[in-house]
């Protein structure tokens, strides 16, 4: 019975092994380029195979018989089937090893620019919402779910998995999910955690557990501060396109507004930073927010250019 033609993946593996071989000839490399040009699908599947193969580089110094068999490919055709089979096994190992439930797992980085938010559905079923100008790294493997909030703010709706803890590193502490929905905001050196549902544990110099409708903040020195009950509504209002401030410093309010607009908001006099702002602003209407600030505080607003606004003490020209 004649042999069936090799699948596209098997062809890609064959070419990969030939190119990795020390005695690959110029004619074979030219034939490979012709194979790539023959069909768009050839290049796509070859890139996938090559990427998975490169992921296994960390095993080079380890004794894996299957990998060793794949790497001893030589041109005699009787070795091709054995080498290709070994490569298939190694690539299969790579998929399992680097999947979200593999030994080494998978890493990802999610970021947003000013004025843009993003929703991410993780492979474990959890959902993340990033506010503007935020960055978060995610690592999922068979034992844990580890995230790092680098800057900004994120809302977490965590899928329960008792065998894989969901943990966020932020501001020198670990925020450990206990089955919940919550928001974490990093501003300068202070972190605020607001729990909407369930509970989380914050591990720093000491540990604190907070439950639904509770919020707290902490700094890098491990100093905790309980926040009022209305903090949850204020902190998560950005998800509905609103920013709510209650007795917040003007410089903090301006920094928050900048995250939602491509503009630089500056104070002509540093003493103005201490002025306090209260109110609700829509994230998509910067002019309205600045007008309310100018109406309620003794300041004037100048626009030197479309991407800058300067707030100065009223009466100063």
Total helical elements = 8
Tell me the span between the first and last alpha carbons: 93 Å
Mean pLDDT: 83
Low-confidence segments, given as residue ranges, are 1-5, 60-82, 93-104
Count of beta strands: 18
Gross morphology is extended
Biggest beta sheet summary: 13 strands, mixed
Briefly, what CATH class of the largest domain? Mainly Beta
CATH topology of the largest domain: Jelly Rolls
Rg from Cα: 28 Å
Task: Report on the architecture of this protein.
This protein has 317 residues and is of the alpha+beta class. The chain has three domains: 8-97, no CATH class; 106-234, Jelly Rolls (Sandwich), CATH 2.60.120.1440; 241-313, Phage tail protein beta-alpha-beta fold, CATH 3.55.50.30. Helix content is 29%, strand content 34%. The protein contains eight helices and 18 strands. The strands form three sheets. Strands 1, 2, 3, 4, 5, 6, 7, 8, 9, 10, 11, 12 and 13 form a 13-stranded mixed sheet that branches. The protein has a three-stranded mixed sheet with strand order 15-18-17, with helices on one face. A two-stranded antiparallel sheet has the order 14-16. Helix 1 packs across helix 3 (40-55), helix 1 packs across helix 5 and helix 2 packs across helix 3 (40-55). The radius of gyration is 28 Å and the shape is extended.
């Amino acid at each position: 019975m004649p042999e069936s033609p090799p699948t596209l993946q098997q062809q890609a593996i064959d070419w990969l092994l030939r190119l990795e071989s020390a005695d690959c000839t110029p004619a074979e490399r030219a034939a490979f380029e012709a194979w790539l040009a023959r069909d768009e699908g050839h290049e796509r599947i070859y890139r996938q195979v090559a990427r998975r193969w490169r992921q296994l580089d960390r095993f080079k110094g380890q004794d894996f018989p299957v990998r060793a068999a794949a790497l001893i490919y030589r041109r005699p055709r009787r070795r091709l089937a054995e080498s290709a089979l070994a490569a298939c096994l190694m690539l299969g190992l790579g998929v399992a090893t680097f999947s979200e439930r593999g030994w080494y797992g998978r890493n990802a980085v999610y970021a947003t620019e000013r004025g843009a938010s993003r929703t991410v559905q993780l492979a474990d079923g959890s959902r993340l919402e990033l506010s503007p100008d935020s960055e978060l790294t995610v690592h999922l493997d068979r034992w844990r779910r580890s995230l790092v909030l680098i800057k900004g703010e994120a809302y977490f709706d965590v899928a329960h998995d008792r065998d894989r803890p969901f943990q966020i590193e932020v501001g020198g502490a670990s925020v450990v999910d206990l089955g919940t929905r919550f928001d974490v905001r990093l501003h300068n050196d202070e972190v605020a955690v607001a729990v909407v549902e369930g509970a989380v544990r914050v591990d720093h110099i000491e540990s604190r557990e907070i439950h639904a409708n509770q919020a707290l903040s902490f700094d890098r020195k491990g100093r905790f501060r309980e926040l009022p009950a209305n903090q949850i509504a204020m902190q998560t209002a950005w998800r509905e396109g609103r920013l709510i401030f209650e007795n917040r410093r003007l410089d903090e309010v301006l920094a928050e507004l900048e995250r939602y607009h491509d503009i630089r908001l500056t104070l002509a006099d540093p003493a103005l930073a201490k002025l306090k702002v209260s109110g609700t602003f829509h994230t998509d209407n910067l002019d309205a927010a600045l007008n309310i600030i100018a109406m309620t505080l003794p300041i004037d607003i100048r626009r030197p250019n479309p991407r800058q606004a300067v707030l100065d003490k009223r009466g100063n020209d």
